[in-house]
Design goal:
The chain contains 14 helices and 17 strands. By secondary structure, it is of the alpha/beta class. A seven-stranded mixed beta sheet has the order 4-10-9-8-7-5-6, sandwiched between helices. Bound molecules: pyridoxal-5'-phosphate.
């Protein structure tokens, strides 16, 4: 029996709730993860005892807040293996991080004749910024073709990455198919032709050890709320050489070096990209989340997510009239499925009546839905507070949904 990795009763108050008379089973962590007390307390404590703005006033609370903010950046840098904390830019989340690279660097990096490579499985956040970039600069958007099981092969990458490729933008793990993509191979290919690789880590950073240096990538974007942290905080990590060249998108306070009536010069990285008052409490909460995960050990988190994701995939695969999408093995923490003749929203509705939260819809990946030939799917996604018991509840819920609609 696979048990949850953590003491759920102690750490996750929300998971003690009953929904419609049943113990809540949270299978929607790919949308957002639940927060442990350790994270909730860190945010509360900041507001309760240390609240002040950062990087400006000289009083004691401002100094405390500024130190805590800087320490958060260091914790997060350490969590992803960054060379230095200045390479960590705080954003609102993955979406803002990817838009920042596409606009701040993409505009100067691409022109007519250049190519930007994406895949059909990308979340809209890692697709539309590149579509728009291609429109602005006249570059061409190219797609790496997916294999039949939804994976990206090294050969498929080779077929699309060439001398004109300036940017490859790929998710490390799909939020729908649970596919794990060959990021290192893509990075090697694009570096060989002098381009860069931008990685959407929204679904990988929460679940596996991340080492940006070992991955040898140029940018990594991820969101705090999918890794037990608060909403409204995320990260763009980038290699210093690119961050130094990248243009800021937000102009205003704290991102300048000097301003006169007609001109302004920018502060150093990372302040250059963080105009205005940052999400101080969010960054403190995110660093608490990285400590929470590190204390468990990201290797253990990874093994757990994979074992449970695989179990869910295999369990659903066995049920007649259920289609499960994506590769059989290895399968990540997100499992997309459909039940013949039943709309995914109806599935999610019946599940809710049984206390089980899943997502139904296109998962912000409409080109992938087109590739799968469906309008939408149901999706269950697991994390460290789930156990085998939850997969049994998922199985029961599918059987119940089938019975309900047969009636
Ligand atoms: C793979 C992937 N990329 C990007 C995002 C966007 O993240 P956010 O909404 O936190 O900016 C998500 C969120 O679901 C995602 O799963």
């Amino acid at each position: 029996m696979i048990e949850p990795l953590v003491d759920v009763a102690r750490d996750f108050p929300i998971l003690q709730r009953e929904i419609n008379g049943h113990r809540l089973v949270w299978l929607d962590s790919a949308a957002t993860a639940q927060k442990p007390n350790q994270v909730i307390d860190s945010v509360n404590d900041f507001y309760r005892w240390s609240n002040a703005n950062v990087l400006r006033s000289v009083h004691t609370l401002a100094a405390e807040a500024t130190t805590a903010f800087a320490e958060s950046r260091r914790d997060i840098a350490r969590f992803i293996g960054a060379r230095k904390s200045e390479e960590v830019i705080f954003t609102r989340g993955t979406t803002e991080a990817l838009n920042l690279v596409a606009r701040g660097l993409g505009d100067s990096l691409t022109k007519v004749g250049d190519e930007i490579v994406v895949s059909p499985m990308e979340h809209h956040s890692n697709l539309i910024p590149w579509q728009q970039l291609a429109k602005r600069t006249g570059a061409t958007l190219r797609y790496v073709e997916l294999a039949q099981d939804g994976t990206i092969t090294v050969d498929a990458l080779r077929a699309v990455i060439g001398p004109s490729t300036r940017i490859v933008a790929l998710s490390k793990v799909s939020n729908v198919l649970g596919t794990v993509n060959p990021i290192q191979a893509a990075g090697e290919m694009v570096h060989h032709v002098g381009g860069i690789i931008v990685v959407d880590g929204a679904q990988s950073v929460p679940h596996e050890p991340t080492d940006v240096q070992q991955l040898d990538i140029d940018f990594l974007a991820f969101s705090g709320h999918k890794m037990c942290g608060p909403t409204g905080i995320g990260v763009l990590w980038g290699k210093s050489q690119w961050l130094d060249q990248m243009e800021p998108l937000q102009y205003g306070g704290e991102m300048i070096s000097y301003v006169d009536r007609d001109t302004a010069t920018w502060a150093e990285v990372p302040e250059k990209f963080e105009g205005g008052t940052p999400n101080i409490a969010g960054s403190i909460g995110l660093s608490a989340a990285t400590r929470y995960l590190s204390n468990i050990g990201m290797k253990k988190v990874h093994q757990h997510s994979q074992a449970l994701g695989q179990l869910a995939f295999d369990t659903l695969y066995e049920i007649p009239a259920v289609t499960v999408y994506g590769p059989g093995r290895p399968h990540g923490a997100a499992i997309a499925f459909n039940i013949e003749g039943i709309h995914p929203h109806d599935i999610a509705q019946v599940f809710d009546s049984l206390g089980i939260a899943i997502r139904a819809g296109h998962h912000c990946a409409q080109p992938l839905m087109q590739w799968l030939g469906v309008g939408s799917t149901a999706r269950a996604s697991v994390y460290l507070y789930n156990g085998e018991q939850d997969i049994l509840r998922l199985r029961e819920a599918i059987l119940e949904t089938k019975r309900y609609f047969r009636r």
